Amino acid sequence: MDILELNDIHKSYYINDKEFKVLKGIDISFNQGEFVSLLGESGGGKSTLMNIVGGLDSNYQGDVLLNGSSLKHDTDKQLDEYRRKTIGFIFQNFNLIGHMTILDNVRVALEMSNLSHAEQNKRSEGLLKRVGLGEHIHKHPNQLSGGQKQRVAIARALASEPDIIIADEPTGALDAQNTDEILKLLDEIASEGKLVITVTHSDKVAAYGTRVVHMANGKIDSDKQLREPYKTEPSSGMSLRPLRMYQAFLMAFQQMMYNIKRNSLVMIGSSIGLFSVIIMLGLGSGIKGYINEQIYSQVNPNSVQVLNGDPDNTTDILKYDMSSKDIDKVKSVKGVKSVEKGAMELSVQLNYNKKTSVAQDFNTYNSTLLDKNISKGKKPNKLNTIMLSEGVAKKLNSRTKDLIGKKIRMTFTAIGNDGKQVPMSKELTVSGISNIDYSLISTSYDTLKKIYSSNNQKIKTNFITVNISGGVSNVKATQKRIEDLKNSNGKKNFTVTGANAEVSTLNTYVNLAVNVLASISGISLLVSAIMIIVVLSISVSERTKEIGILRALGVTKGNIRELFFSEAILLGLCSSLFSIIIAGLLEFLINNISNQAIKYPIIQISPLNIVFIIFVSLFINILAAIIPSERASKLDPVDSLSAE
Questions:
Q1: For a tag on the chain, would you pick the N or C end, based on fewer CB atoms within 10 A?
Q2: Residue 197's closest CA among 215, 170, 221?
């Protein structure tokens, strides 16, 4: 049985709906060990016929049989497998991949084999030595002569041990000496049991073969046997498969490194937007952290104050009163550790040694205040003691420490049982000084209750301080449960205030501002995406011939897509890493300054920010690669190989 049969092959091209017949009924068969020269003038249909034989063109009438099996209805994947396992191409223009060494050019055909990397190298080196290029394996194609380039093409065609070698004008660009050497190599390949088909228009070249087939005007007009074909059985082919994803990735990396200057500019341009976003996120985290630190350094984040009402201003709080039933309800809430009664007054006057100071706020001492804020003395736990803030104390004595243990008179106007104003006054002992900036004084709830009692008045529990168990993360949920309670009047009227609520509100505003700034910065990411689309589209145009070569070697459409997606992923990874490094350096410099100025690192880039920016970069680049990669995968192999 013949290895290859062509039955009634017709092929036409159409230009403006006008048909141009190229092949007009070709019937021919070939066998192993033959060195067939397909002779004829240019335009006679020789190359078109070889594209059909090589599985590059499936748009024809008639049938091609390989070992008796038709190729006519094979899918793209089956034709890829046919080229990968059966066909080895040698082109007139060599068609070597410029950014690869000649060793890599040969090995690319073996990337789809079951050989290990070391075995691929060994076989590629052996083939290059066989064609006389053993000393040049690390050179690139542009460092070789025409004859040397054609030898590389022959070595590549032999790499996967195909049964059929198709050589299209293999000596057309060579001098006489190189022509003889190449033809001897082809004859040697045929002697090993391969079918070698050489397309030529030279009678001298045709004479090297075992058989000459002449074509003219799309038909075979003669078929002459020059000598007997070789009888040697060809070696069994190796196991071959499509490219693996990691191999496409490595090929993309090789291409990226070859054009490293241009790609570096692309990566720098892409990293600008990424850098802006990561700095905005880090700045937002730093500002939130600084706000939290400043507020939590003043008050206890796990303590909140609860009012039975919703005041429009501070004065309204004086009207509210928490009943025993309301306090018991709050105590029963999940997450509440303990409850402290509290009361407040406004505009309290203090007198000491004929000096007067006015405190705008007066709260009974509670757990929202931190012990670390007491700079001198201690908290007012005992009856008839008072704690002053630094600002209030300085107006009474510039040496605030000297006030500790001294008696001062406190005077204020309270709202009595009948709703009328009642003046109250009491001499108290200073227990301590707090470093809180705002004008605040405090006594114990029992002390204030006693002052009211001595004036025949009943104290109102204006608010309660609720201490929440667990960490700060538990505060928000407990606060929500309290707000959902109904008071003794059957209304949801509890208002919760505290450091955590303030921080949450401020953080909301900071997040909003940061997100707006990050979104503005993110506009540059759109520019980056457009730039990646342009760069990859240019890359497709520049590498059209390379794509044709890879398809001729049996690389699938999916592999071509993977190749360009891999390049986009590499650009995305490198861009994000570059932006992270620059952002890290800027974070270090700015935080050195902020640590000296405010004793706090104002930019805080978290691992989550880094993961996010890498994800965003990869996502944008993958999206940008969809159109170029699809365009590359759909390129026709025949048209690609003829591209300049």
A1: C
A2: 170
